[in-house]
Amino acid sequence: MSSPVRAARLTVRQTLMEQRNFWRSPEYALFTFALPLFLLLLLGAANGGSYLPGHIRQIKVLVPSILAFGVIAAAYANLGAKMAVLRHDGVLKRIRTTPLPSGAYLTGLVVSTVVTSLAIAGCTALAGWLAFGTAPRLDGVFLLGCGLALGIICFAALGLAVSSVIKSAESASPITNAIYLPIVMISGIFDPTIGLPHWMSAAAGALPIKPLAGVLEDAYTPARYAFPVADLGVLLAWAVVGGTLAVWRFRRQPA
Length: 255
Hints:
76% of the residues lie in helices and 2% in strands. With 255 residues, the protein is mainly α. It has one domain. Strands 1-2 form a two-stranded antiparallel ribbon. The chain is globular. It starts with a helix and ends with a helix.
């Protein structure tokens, strides 16, 4: 069997194993998968009948915002915390002593994260449609796909980067959550009507959470703006920063 084919088969097997482990772990599955759906139903029931300026139903903004939150929770918080725990427990070092190539193991882990992120996105979008009759515009489906793809890549890269600086397994989840949850708040994910000082709003726009929510919101709300090149550019820039930092840290401090 050729080496590329063997590596591909091992990666697929590792991806399936990571998926089984994810669904067998109640804490990961509950926080990563169930929490976004719970927030959508709770906030949607409370604000579903409200309207934003421009006579836009608030639920039209809330659904893609929670969709963005779910992607971030899976691709950034879940992956970052898990990688930190694996490094602290010595799993990444022990993998090197097994027949499983390190590349296949890490690729399987990342691919599993992508699968989980897409599953969360799909379930959130389905829940928004079934519970609140909210769906993306037909001409916004391409933008939705672009936003999800770039968002998952961006936050997975940032999750790997953050995991490389976490020193202990106990601090993995607190650190990852402490980094992104305050930014979620000031980005208007849970409350699009939040009023912030201009400088804070500008700072949130330069970070990747608000641009991801903005891209997904543009796929749901009426086409009022041009293609969100600026928001996609911010996501791409942070993806490059996260990926570069992760590679540098992983090479400097081997697992």
